[in-house]
Amino acid sequence: MIHKEIQSIKDVVSRELLPFVRRPGRYIGGEINQVVKDLSACDVRIALCFPDIYEIGMSYLGMEVLYSIFNGLDGVAAERVFAPWFDAEEVIRKKNIPLFTTESRGRVRDFDLIGFSLTNELCYTNLLNMLDLAGLEVRSENRNEDDPIIIVGGQAANCAEPLSVFADMFVLGEGEEAAVEIIELYRRMKKDGASKEAFLLECAKQFSFVYVPRFYEFDDTGLKPKIAGLRAEFENAVIRDFENAPIPEKPIVPFVQTVHERVSIEIMRGCPGRCRFCQASFCRRPVRVRSVQRILEAAKQQYAATGFNTVSLLSLSTSDYPYLEELVEAMNGYFAPLHVGLSVPSLRVQKQLQLLPKMVTSVRKGGLTIAVEAASEHLRDVINKPITDEDLCAAVSAAYETGFLRLKLYFMVGFPGETEDDILRIVDLSSKLSSLRKEVDGKFADITAAISWLVPKAHTPFGWLGQKDRAYFERGKELILSRKRELKLRFVRFNFHEIDRSILESAIGRGDRRLCEAIEMAWRNGAKFDLWDEGFGLKRWQEAFAAAGLNLETEAQKSFEPDEPLPWSHLGGPDTAGLLKHYHQSMSVLEP
Question: Coil, strand, or helix at residue 339?
Answer without folding.
Answer: coil
